[in-house]
């Protein structure tokens, strides 16, 4: 089976979900091709879209939140949004690409390519199986105007939300958000710490701002330093935010209890090595943490889908989310000291968040591909048989 995975550079979560399924496909012996589909129109197009998104989220999160709310309102009254028309322009590029390749399925962990696929379907262009993967614990604006064959959602509670928004229930599959199998594997904490050159003794807190290094990294680090107790360490991951990385690296270079990290491909190792995670409630990061089984303190969300993610996690006991920076640091310490409460959170994470979503998605693609192949074979047989039969119209005319 050959699968095309189309993502987009608006946050690292979409890529992470796509790579998780790619990994699972290749482990089963299938072929997977994944890329940012906007590059089909040129690297400049991809860079522009990504830069606008990232800069808005990092520098003007409330503007992003306002746009999200406008989108939610517009999705209730519009049959086709501006997002649809913009992404429809990608149809010609994707059509040309698909004509040079032969894929059995297209997987989309992002709304934008799903909008393009929808436009192409409405133009009568023949396409392989099209499966969308939602990477948040809600239904973001405009998914309802797409026409994919199936939609993989994060949890069974999302089914009712999506149906209310207009997506047919029979197309909704609550298989979870796919994460790499590395996060579900158990690892010895001491070995993980030694590998990352972190102190073997004491309590190590992990602070993250997602792939963009967004959120209150500086404020949380300052609060941790003000209230730090003996034997406590803090690892801060700045992601792609090079400016934040350089600033914090310089500021805390004399503090032996703070470890500042930039972009890393070893996130699963850090989650195994540390005792507690502070992170904004991104869909992928939160899922990776829950699958890893690390207690979570959710920090301030980027307004929009992250607000819904935080609400879902708190509701199911998968995280705590005090409103202030002071409360987040304090309550995180209290949670870690209360082993019964921390273990209850980890148990809830195991029960609510599946670690094998990527494998389930691969099984889905295999199953639907078989059905499609069987139907095609049956159609070929019927066509062959019909070609040897007298014309019905001739028989009917003879009777007349």
Automatic annotation (TrEMBL):
Domain Glycosyl transferase family per the UniProt entry, residue ranges: 229-350
Which residue ranges does the record assign to the Diacylglycerol glucosyltransferase N-terminal domain? 14-179
Q: Which controlled-vocabulary keywords does the entry list? A: Glycosyltransferase, Transferase
Pfam families, A to Z: Glycos_transf_1, MGDG_synth
Superkingdom of this entry's organism? Answer: Bacteria
Question: InterPro entries annotated for this entry?
Answer: Diacylglyc_glucosyltr_N, Glyco_trans_1, Glycosyltransf_28_UgtP
The residue ranges crossing the membrane are: none
* Protein family: Belongs to the glycosyltransferase 28 family.
Name the record gives this protein: Glycosyltransferase
* Species this chain originates from: Blautia hansenii (Ruminococcus hansenii)
Taxon lineage? Bacteria, Bacillati, Bacillota, Clostridia, Lachnospirales
